[in-house]
Here is the input.
Amino acid sequence: MTSVSGSGERILAILDRFTEAQPEWTSEALMVELGYSRPTLYRYLKTLKDAGYLVSLPNAGFRLGPRVTELDFLMSRSDPLIRIGQHRLEALAAEYPCAAFIVRWYRRKILCIASSQSDMGPPSSYPRGRPMPLARGAISRAILAFLPRREQVPIIEDLLGEFAKIGIGSSVDEVIDELRAIRRNGYATASGEVTPGVVGIAAPILVAERAPVAALCMTMKACDAEDSGARARIESEILRLSQEISADLCCEMMRQPPQTAVDVISGK
Amino acid sequence: MTSVSGSGERILAILDRFTEAQPEWTSEALMVELGYSRPTLYRYLKTLKDAGYLVSLPNAGFRLGPRVTELDFLMSRSDPLIRIGQHRLEALAAEYPCAAFIVRWYRRKILCIASSQSDMGPPSSYPRGRPMPLARGAISRAILAFLPRREQVPIIEDLLGEFAKIGIGSSVDEVIDELRAIRRNGYATASGEVTPGVVGIAAPILVAERAPVAALCMTMKACDAEDSGARARIESEILRLSQEISADLCCEMMRQPPQTAVDVISGK
DNA sequence: GTCAGTTTCTCAATTATTGGGATTACCGCC
DNA sequence: GGCGGTAATCCCAATAATTGAGAAACTGAC
Here is the structure.
């Protein structure tokens, strides 16, 4: 990684300081936290403010600004996963008393990007944009199971403590065995790992039948998922839908890159 | 504006190229559009990619990435306007057959940031994050009317053509007179300017009783808004709610800046 | 295997960025 | 309306970081 654009990264690093736990920062605090000099920090903040990524509050605080909302809207409009998956989520929520999600795998995080919920389903505390815990739940394992080995191992090592707690395995090899089984099945299930009394069923969304980019997940109240026949039907439904989405996504990506204004002008 | 952080701005400028009309870019096209040299552009793109703001598609395309979704989630969580206004939107949608919005005023744009919709109301094509047209509709005028004069004038000049079309006024002075009337009333109304057959009623949300930062807006089908008694009641309801929100917002902003980790450590 | 296209690297020149200190702007308060 | 204190910006020389040309490595496609 020899090519860097230092100041760009330092500017973006400012945005990383804003979290659910601390959504507001004073410039003083950012200076200490990030170690930038005062004029530099103010220059960076001004850049972010002028672009709308931050807003400054009268009494010396900063908060995320409307530009991120605008960008997310654009993102949601152009995201093929949403275009492809949304109606399937809605179909799931219409057929079963459940909450259905599509979540993205992104920088060792799991991020809900679309969801649909039936009236009778379990309440979900994961709206679009909220990162989910990486160590718990069906989604997590559905994705980990399909990662290439060399990505798997360091992640498993990091999470081993968590995995031991929920009984997945107490050594890296045990966890890998567990994941291998999930890979054979094509989907993962979990009971009460994220929310007590709620079961999750998740299958990965794969690009080129290899790399997981996301997962399709459905959660139900445990009491609605007891019948093993019904449960098996749901599992195969999730698996089928996830494969459909994967296939559609691949089609989408195989198409020609978009015509751009420039291409058009230059007559390509 | 002597203080700049050039490369930071150039990096953020890349994100500005992604629009609803063109949500995908090739590096070639960006190079031409922005005039950066190839290695520089790739450095910038790598920075944005590594941070999750962009994702690269296999065949030479870029699209916005999940980080913007994550940021918008944070933003929505920490936004006092949403915290203060959301339940009021829902109350409106429960009481009237309508769509109710809170929109932000941001860099000469109007951005929906929260909404609620009743089953019987008019369908809305403005979800969170979508910029609304600046020249049309009640929201636009509710905000313009409360801007300080020196901000008003250049905007009106830019939009004069549009204003003339919808009969608001054909000269700057005429438009200003119109806006002054809105300012006296406290709210603006519009019929069919954005969507045929839909009326809008909007009142500004003010900070310190001066600067408009947002507006509360309600849209109804024209047929539901014909009775002038009912209409007057709704208008005063919108006005009242917008004033409540303004007041709550001021309270919110008067409070002490947040304790930060740094402050706590240093014992402030 | 070869090929076309995309992405990253190397490295020296130079430019744009940085930061200390001073200055100005701003806000709340009296 | 003036005043005090803090926050934000400006100035400018030093320097460290960014830049861009060209080349090389990588990627998939055939």
Remarks:
- The first strand of chain A starts at residue 54 and ends at 57.
- Chain A is about 50% helix and 20% strand.
